[in-house]
Design a protein that fits this description.
The complex is a heterodimer. Chain A contains four helices and no strands. By secondary structure, chain A is an all-alpha fold. Chain A has a domain of about 40 residues. Chain A is elongated and about 55 Å long. In chain B, the strands form three sheets. Chain B has a five-stranded mixed β-sheet, with helices on one face. In chain B, strands 1-2 form a two-stranded antiparallel ribbon. Chain B is built from 33 helices and nine strands. In chain B, strand 6 and strand 7 form a beta hairpin. Chain B is mainly alpha-helical. Chain B folds into four domains: about 400 residues, Sodium/glucose cotransporter (Up-down Bundle); about 120 residues, no CATH class; about 60 residues; about 160 residues, 2-Layer Sandwich (Heat Shock Protein 90), CATH 3.30.565. Classes of the chains: A mainly alpha, B mainly alpha. Chains A and B meet through helix 1 and helix 2 of A and helix 4, helix 10, helix 11 and helix 13 of B.
Chain lengths: ~100, ~900
């Protein structure tokens, strides 16, 4: 095995996986912040311009966030799902 | 569309579902799972979150409140996207602890408390009954919509009758596939597959209607968005409080609703499926909600008079799209039935496990010994029927008038009461049973008071004056304004207060109470659910698999050589060569039974499940193992004790035997002595009497011989007297004449009596010490001892001027008398012998003693509670007599 080309930080794969987990943990928090935004946009009832609800743009925004979250989760999930790679950090390295 | 055709379609659809469920069950029972265990099926089964409430109600909700309906789907989205936080742990714990329901999870976490299980079950039943009623209502409503739209006007037979038929059919389906067999994991593959099929049907139906509305009725998406933005309705304003509160409550519900817990945790076959569901389920929810707003807006625009809750169905029907309407009807039917089936199974599991079976076992304790499976299945079936009957009753009582969305939210808020206890249970080791019970009771009560009971209307359950003035006339106890909170939306108000008070009671109860040991162990197991992973890896056991070789090694450690032949037999039974059979459940059961014979049932089970099962060993298992070990230890201790006792007895027997042998030797010696002693006088008596009988003897000789004869006869008599005396003393049968006697006078008597022994000798007796002592003893016997000692001194003292010194002392409660003469004493090696019978140090029979004197003395002293011994180092022969001042009569 060509050890000479191995990176200086040997547990690079493990490190990357840990950060992936962090990202997976952060994702719902991002979602919470973005999803609560529409509630903050609408002014108090009776205010000028409040009657024109603008539900259309709110809905578009929410669905955009929704698809963003789904996409993010879909990217993160396969990397986190495989229990074998969690168990054996060397396996990721032996690929190259 | 004729009513009969509709019913026919429904029946065909149901039969198709039956077939799907049946085929899957059959395949699963043969162990062929294939795509049935795919993440896709898992994700689709999660779609029972979308009930008829979503299918029909969401449009109505959107028509009334605009984008607020989205909150119901945003909450679950956030939970699933954040699966790494919570769901992963929940699913892991569910698998480790063999959890069968949310009630089971909580009761297991808090020290297997059945009280907690009962509480959660009650909450779940109360919260779910309206929800099930809601599904029945939506199915009957959809029938009604078809009926009203038909020009020919077939009359719907009866709404109540429809509901009964639907409920009956659902009960049948649920019982058929939910209680066919009793599975420890409570997994129902057939039903899960049927639900997955239904999930596809409802998604396709809703998307088809949406596409029809957006591209068929309106002019594309942009135009629809414009129309949505133009809606000017006061209800459409987003209220921040409700928005956040509903997202939260929906997020809570997706975890704690009984049916969601069932598919999410209990029916999960592989943990990795959760990763796929983390994005696929939100995607499903997103697609389900995608066309809700367009349908609502276009529908309201075209048919302002229609019931907004039924717009999904009304729209295609009114537009003349019969096939689409049929699809929608089936979609709605699917949503309702799948929800009811899973909810009923989940509730029935809880009811039978936490309520019915414990009650049954309490009233029929003997049932434990029999086969419980039939009882459990029966309890399940009754629970299913009971739950559906409750839903039906609620439907008929409420009249099915309330808006769909309101009922759903009440159920959500009710089940959310389990959330603090659930989260606390898996993240906080300090959470205790007391806290959990306090939190649940508080939350449930507040929820019932502020949301559930008021939902029946003012004056229905809670009187109107309570709404206005609060309970007991306390304004701060108004159901919709607790603690003076004003202007809050009633739903948000209830969610806020119930969960805040619930959490507060839970935390306070946990902090101020003390958990029992099972609770603490379970708490650690739940909170540290992922720690086991590391350990399992180190041991080299992949979860859920055991290599036959590992099993063989284990078995060999316990069974020895027998294990090999057992495995070989197992392999041969499976038609395999060699020693390693396939690990089948049957083989494992056999092996466990075999191991149980050696190490006990609990230990064997723990070993096998540790090696083979996905489940870890529970505290109960360990306790059973400990009990078995304790029994074995006790048994071996008892064996050890027995053995010690046996050894002791054997030693005693050996000693007794040695003594007996010695005694036998002594007896022989004694007999020899006796016969010798008797024979000597007898010989001379015979000889002299023969001489005398010949006659012709001078009178002097006759007189001499007669004298000799007399002497010998006296000697014989004395010898026999002594022997008799000794035997009486030795047997302890001697009668003592106890009385008070003066010590000095007794010595005087002894001196006088002994003076006849060798009267020719010059002999002086010196007495010193206290003589004025009164002894309570047998004076004659004691004098006998003194006589013996004095006459011995007279006989054997070899000094020219013999002097016997008698020294008297009193010490404590005893009197010590020393008899010391001035002779040469007794040789050291002979000192141990002098008290034996017939022990005579010299052959010279100076006083014709038989050698029994000192032996008799020793026996007398023993009888008088004292002792006599030789006192060495006194220059002459010295004896010490010790005796108590007062001899108690008991001895005699």
């Amino acid at each position: 095995m060509p050890r000479s080309r191995a990176p200086l930080f040997l547990a690079r794969a493990v490190y990357r996986r840990r950060r992936l987990r962090d990202a997976a943990r952060l994702l719902p928090l991002v979602g919470v912040v973005l999803m609560v935004l529409p509630a903050l946009w609408s002014g108090p009832p009776g205010q000028e311009g409040a009657t024109q609800s603008g539900a259309g743009s709110d809905a578009v925004f929410i669905f955009a966030v929704w698809f963003l979250l789904i996409g993010g989760a879909a990217l993160l999930a396969p990397a986190l799902a495989d229990p074998e790679r969690t168990a054996d950090p060397d396996q990721a390295e032996s690929g190259d | 569309m004729p009513f009969n055709l509709l019913v026919l379609f429904c029946l065909l659809y149901v039969i198709a579902l039956f077939l799907v469920a049946w085929l899957v069950e059959r395949r699963a029972s043969r162990g062929v799972m294939g795509f049935l265990r795919s993440p896709l099926v898992y994700t689709l089964s999660l779609s029972i979150y979308c009930t008829a409430w979503t299918f029909y109600g969401a449009v109505g909700y959107a028509a009334r409140s605009g984008i607020e309906f989205l909150t119901i789907y945003l909450g679950p989205t956030l939970v699933f996207v954040g699966w790494w936080w919570l769901l992963r742990k929940l699913v892991r714990i569910g698998r480790q602890q063999r959890v069968t329901s949310i009630a089971d999870l909580l009761s297991s976490r808090y020290g297997k408390s059945n009280l907690l299980g009962v509480l959660v079950t009650v909450i779940a039943v109360v919260a779910s009954t309206p929800y099930i009623a809601l599904q029945l209502q939506s199915v009957t409503l959809s029938f009604a919509v078809f009926a009203s739209e038909t020009p020919s006007g077939w009359a719907l037979p009866d709404r109540n009758a429809t509901a009964i038929w639907v409920a009956g059919g659902l009960a049948l389906f649920t019982i058929l596939f939910g209680t066919r067999k009793l599975d420890a994991k409570e997994q129902h593959h057939g039903i899960v597959m049927a639900i997955a099929v239904e999930a596809v049907v409802k998604l396709v139906a809703l998307l088809a209607v949406g596409a029809f509305v957006v591209w068929g009725l309106a002019e594309g998406p942009l135009a629809v968005i414009e129309k949505i933005s133009a809606v000017d309705s006061p209800g459409w304003q987003v209220q921040p409080g409700r928005w956040a509160g509903l997202i939260f409550i929906a997020a809570a519900a997706v975890i704690s609703l009984p049916r969601m817990f069932q598919v999410l945790v209990v029916e999960n076959v592989e943990e990795s499926h959760l990763a796929r569901a983390s994005w696929a389920f939100p995607l499903y929810l997103c697609l389900m909600s995608l066309f809700i707003l367009p349908i609502a807006v276009i529908g309201m625009e075209r048919y302002p008079q229609a019931n907004p809750d039924m717009l999904v169905l009304t729209l295609p029907l009114s537009e003349g799209q019969g096939a689409l309407a049929m699809l929608v009807f089936l979609g709605g039917f699917s949503s309702a039935t799948s929800m009811v089936i899973v909810e009923t199974i989940a509730l029935a599991t809880m009811l039978s496990n936490h309520l019915l079976m414990p009650l049954w076992l309490r009233f029929k304790p003997g049932a434990l010994t029999g086969d419980l499976r039939r009882g459990v299945l029966l309890a399940r079936r009754f629970s299913i029927i009971g739950v559906l009957a409750l839903g039906l009753a609620y439907f008929r009582l409420s009249g099915g008038s309330a808006a769909l969305a309101a009922i759903g939210l009440i159920a959500f808020a009710g089940m959310a009461q389990a959330l603090p206890v659930l989260l606390g249970g898996i993240f906080w080791r300090g959470a205790t049973k007391t806290g959990a019970v306090a939190g649940l009771v508080t939350g449930f009560a507040v929820w019932a008071y502020t949301l559930f009971l008021p939902s029946f209307g003012q004056g229905a359950v809670i009187p109107a004056h309570v709404f206005a003035g609060g309970a007991f006339g306390l304004p701060w106890l108004r159901p919709q304004g607790l603690f003076g909170t004003q202007g809050m939306d009633p739903l948000v108000h209830s969610i806020f207060w119930s969960l805040v008070l619930n959490t507060a009671a839970f935390c306070a109860g946990s902090i101020f109470s003390f958990p029992d040991p099972v609770e603490r162990v379970q708490g650690a197991a739940f909170v540290n659910a992922f720690d086991g992973e590391v350990q399992a890896e180190r041991l080299g056991w992949s979860q859920g698999q055991a290599e036959p070789e590992a099993l063989l090694i284990l078995a060999q450690r316990i069974l020895g050589e027998e294990a090999l032949s057992f495995f070989e037999a197992g392999a041969r039974a499976q038609g395999k060569d060699g020693y390693l059979p396939d690990i089948t459940p049957a083989f494992l059961a056999d092996l466990e039974r075999r191991l149980a014979g050696s190490v006990g049932a609990a230990t064997a089970h723990a070993m096998i499940s540790q090696l083979f099962g996905q489940a870890t060993v529970t505290v109960e298992d360990l306790m059973a193992v400990a009990t078995e070990a304790a029994q074995i230890m006790e048994y071996s201790t008892r064996l050890e004790q027995n053995q010690e006792e046996l050894t002791r007895t054997a030693r005693q027997l050996r000693e007794a035997n040695e003594k007996l042998t010695q005694l036998s030797v002594q007896k022989d010696a004694f007999l020899g002595q006796i016969s010798h002693e008797l024979r000597t006088p007898m010989t001379s008596i015979r000889a002299f009497s023969e001489i005398l009988s010949e006659g012709d003897l001078p009178p002097q000789m006759v007189a001499d011989y007669g004298h000799i004869l007399h002497d010998e006869a006296v000697r014989l008599t004395r010898l026999l007297d002594d022997l008799l005396d000794l035997s009486v003393l030795e047997n302890g049968t001697v009668q003592l004449n106890l009385g008070l006697s003066h010590l000095g006078r007794m010595l005087d008597r002894a001196e006088a009596a002994a003076s006849q022994t060798r009267p020719e000798r010059a002999f002086r007796i010196e007495r010193e010490g206290v003589e004025e002592i009164f002894l309570h003893t047998d004076a004659d016997r004691l004098v006998q001892v003194f006589i013996n000692l004095i006459s011995n001194a007279r006989k054997y003292c070899d000094a020219e001027a013999a002097v016997l010194k008698i020294r008297l002392r009193q010490k404590g409660g005893r009197v010590i008398a020393d008899f010391i003469d001035n002779g040469s004493g007794i040789a050291k090696e002979a000192q141990g012998l002098i008290f034996e019978k017939f022990a005579r140090l010299t052959d010279q029979r100076r006083a014709g003693g038989a050698g029994l004197g000192l032996a008799i003395c020793r026996e007398i002293m023993a009888n008088l509670g004292g002792s006599i011994g030789y006192l060495p180092g006194q220059k002459g022969a010295a004896f010490r007599v010790t005796l108590p001042l007062r001899l108690e009569a008991a001895k005699g």
